[in-house]
Amino acid sequence: MTASANTNASHAIAPTAAGPTALALATLQALRAELGHAAVLIGDEVPERNRNDNSSQLPVRPLAVVRPADAAGVSAALKACAAAGLKAVPQGGLTGLCGGARPEDGWVAISLERMSGVQEVDSASSTLTVWAGTPLEVVQRAADAAGLYFALDLGARGSCAIGGNLSTNAGGNRVIRYGMARELVLGLEVVLPDGTIITSLNKMLKNNAGFDLKQLFIGSEGTLGIITRIVLRLHGKPRCTMAALCAVDGYDSVLALLNAARSGLGPLLSAFEVMWPDYWQVVTERARVQAAVGQGHAQYVLVEAQGTDEAVDGPRFQAWLEALMERGLLKDAAVAQSLADVQGFWALRDACAEFFQVIGPHISYDVSLPIGRIADFARDCKAALLACDIAGRPAGAGIESIYYGHIGDSNLHLVAWSDGLSLADQPKAQMDATIYGLVQQYGGSVSAEHGIGTQKRKWLGHSRSEAEIALMRTLKSALDPQGLLNPGKVI
């Protein structure tokens, strides 16, 4: 998953609402007595990090932050909030871009930062049981140390929490082979809004005993319950990685290359990343990332394959690529000769993390579209954004945009900005209306892997029917009749 990082530390704190009631303060003091002083921070004790997520909004002053050590602590916190009528928001690594973990004035933040670590590695079942606050990179390293592989990977791996990854059903770089986050989960422990603990730490691939309840909570962004422990599915560790950086003459060739990779590489295919020329120019000329393929091509594609035997899979990958060159499908290509080369190829794709330093303030978008129509969408979207009239700007100045994405899993990322404007002054409302309006026309989704939160809530109806949204609200009402857990998010 590629989303540009930014910080809100320099923003002023938003004005606070009316002060807390005596009942709220008494409830929090009682909770502090139960869980310990360090577990319940009230008022000015709330750290800066718990006042916002990474969604480019003004930070606020939540009433308190509760930092439980286990599911029982989360249960106590939610019961206390229910008793006092306090709204609560679960927080993990706070790397989300859509406001899902952002509190509001008078809310209680329930941070899982102390619920971090690996509880069990089960090599026989190829599973890892972890606390929800565990950073993704810690999960990856634990799997690696056990001789296994956890497939979910994204740029914020060092700071995002695995529970948050599940709450948004994160995708990342290797969805084309391993699927979204929900495909990597076998069991969950969840605390419901009323404090009920549901423990179903299943390790079995096959378990059809009734409803698959874990799916209610994966992707629901902490609105139906708080995930506390997770049984993750691991895979065999790849023994070799092959990669090629390819240049083609248009999107039809991108589709042909994707089909050739699926058929020629089969299960070895692990990533298929496409970069448009505007993106390529920014990362190679402005970010000065070294590229093994030159300028002037219509599309650039990073193809990665993971194998089990370098002596067999390496030559197979090379032969597959050579055959495509002979067919004339590729206009240029570079093949990684070492792990350093693989990392160098990925540096081009990961350079979007530096866009705030390279292109200045901008807004990042994450959408899904039918694979065959992505190029048409990118063309129409770029033209529509450029045609926007921006208040206070010269006619025709428009909105700049660049395009890139995973593509093999339908996911397109784009970055939009108006030169010379601060982040707060970017014409986001016009960007949203233009981009999401076109997403609707093209039959796509306004969120591929970043969730809905508050930032995309207005646009949910562009991708979900009224009946679907009504069913979501029915589930919310059933599990959270008081409407206290992360209200106003998603639906």
Automatic annotation (TrEMBL):
Residues annotated as domain FAD-binding PCMH-type: 58-237
Keyword Oxidoreductase recorded: yes
Keywords: FAD, Flavoprotein, Oxidoreductase
Superkingdom of the source species: Bacteria
Pfam families per UniProt: FAD-oxidase_C (PF02913), FAD_binding_4 (PF01565)
Cofactor(s), names only, from the UniProt record: FAD
Similarity comment: Belongs to the FAD-binding oxidoreductase/transferase type 4 family.
PANTHER family: D-2-HYDROXYGLUTARATE DEHYDROGENASE, MITOCHONDRIAL (PTHR43716)
Identification of the protein by name: FAD-binding oxidoreductase
Organism the protein comes from: Pseudaquabacterium inlustre
UniProt lineage: Bacteria, Pseudomonadati, Pseudomonadota, Betaproteobacteria, Burkholderiales
